[in-house]
Amino acid sequence: MPGETERPQRDLRSTAKLKQLMAGHFHELADASMTGVRKIAWCTSVGPVELLRGMGFLVYFPENHAAMLGASRMAVESIPHANAIGYSPDICSYLTSDIGSFLRKKTPLTAAYQIASVPRPDVLVFNTNQCRDVKDWFAWYAREFQSPLLGIHTHRELGEIREYQVSDIARQIEEMVPALEEVTGEKLRRDRLEEVVSLSRDTSLLWKACLEMNASFPAPWTFFDATIHMGPAVVARGTRESVGYYEALLEELQERAAAGIATVTGERHRLYWEGMPIWGKLRSLSEQFSALNASVVASTYCNSWIFDQLDPADPFESMARAYTELFIVRDEAYKEQYISRCRDFYQFDGILFHDAKTCPNNSNNRYGMPERLMKRLGIPALTINGDLNDLRCYSEEQARTNIEAFMEQLEEAT
Ligand code: SF4
Question: What mean pLDDT is reported for the chain?
């Protein structure tokens, strides 16, 4: 229920700083790509960025670019170009929209930052902890640019994590070092790696603290805000800029919570979002929930960039642990327990499952989880059919109607 002092306020003042940081990130990459002054590594979003940054690379994340394609709705025109060269419309629409945009030579970086193209990779590094698609995606670019491709193959569907699994991943990360040294022409410096791991951990802890502010009533921000503000946790973790950014954001969220300022007016219901965002529909979904006085207070997606296991005293083992203990790597029982813990913490009264047509890896509704969680937690769940980037898989009208009916159900239960 709304607090007495509650005041709605959509915009966060940190947004200006966010825009500055993201622009700096892309311009630095574009300059390096043009001049060759710094080596560029492409990395998956939950890959070993600390090692790459610690070895002096600038790091570019194709998934972040793909999310921009989704948010700008350029994905829909790009996907058929990848389909035409044999990449199925049924596989990851990040992959198809990103490769398609490269083929048609159109990137959202142009409108946002006046940058003509994605940066040229000197090396590409993937981690299959999230899916196999990232390997195929990076392999395509490795062939295109004739650049070396390195990767980590992670154990999946894990319940309890076993030491041999962590050591295996740590060795795989370590074994990449000689190949990376060949690209940089420099030996790995342990002190630099430790510093980056430490900054990455600090970023994670601050990001976690920002997300946890939504335990407050009313929630000072929502999942839809967080999908935008998580940019630095993805592309700039391991830098001082990301630490500074989240210190400022946390301060702002603390002020909002203390003053009862919320994104959603008259918060009557609190929801959890499970699955990928629907990038091209963030605004309309956010507005619909807001009009229904519902805050989406937490999500698996935004929580997935919390790597508090990182430890500068033990960089390889701790990177291995951080990238193996991830939600997406785990089995159904672990995932249910995780969401149940989130329920205790954030006190939400309903769960939204996004069944993303082209991402089975991040769609957890397909093996009975909503039904089991409804029974376990005694709260309703709704599945929204859609996709992260391919809006042809999403019916706005159907989603709106289903959400309205779901909210009526919640209202009746109040
Ligand atoms: S996890 Fe899903 S969205 Fe992410 S790269 Fe893999 S298939 Fe694509």
Answer: 96
User: What's the 319 CA to ligand 1 centre distance in angstroms?
Assistant: 20
- Per DSSP, the chain holds a count of helices (H) and strands (E) of 19, 10
pLDDT band at 9 (very low <50, low <70, confident <90, very high): low
Q: 24 C-alpha to center of ligand 1: Å? A: 26
Same fold, 15-189 and 193-413: yes
Closest ligand 1 atom number to CA of residue 132: 6
Residues in the ligand 1 pocket, defined by CB under 6 Å: 92, 94, 130-131, 133-134, 276, 359, 361-362, 388
Has residue 30 got a pLDDT over 60?
yes
* CA dist., res. 104 & res. 359, Å (int): 23
Distance 79 CA to ligand 1 centre (A): 15
CATH architecture of 15-189: 3-Layer(aba) Sandwich (3.40)
31-43: per-residue pLDDT in tens? 999 999 999 999 9
- pLDDT band (50, 70, 90) for residue 11: confident
The listed CATH number (3.40.50.11900, 3.40.50.2300, 3.40.50.720, 3.40.50.300) that belongs to domain 193-413? 3.40.50.11900
Task: Kindly give the distance from the C-alpha atom of residue 360 to the centroid of ligand 1, in angstroms, as a whole number.
Answer: 8
CA–CA distance, 29 with 235 (Å, rounded to integer) = 11
Of 82, 65, 67, nearest to 30 (Cα)? 65
Mutate to test the pocket of ligand 1, among 330, 362, 393 (most ligand atoms within 8 A of CB): 362
Closest to 87 in 3D by CA, of 97, 74, 77, 75: 97
What H or E segment, with its residue span, contains residue 298?
Answer: strand 294-299
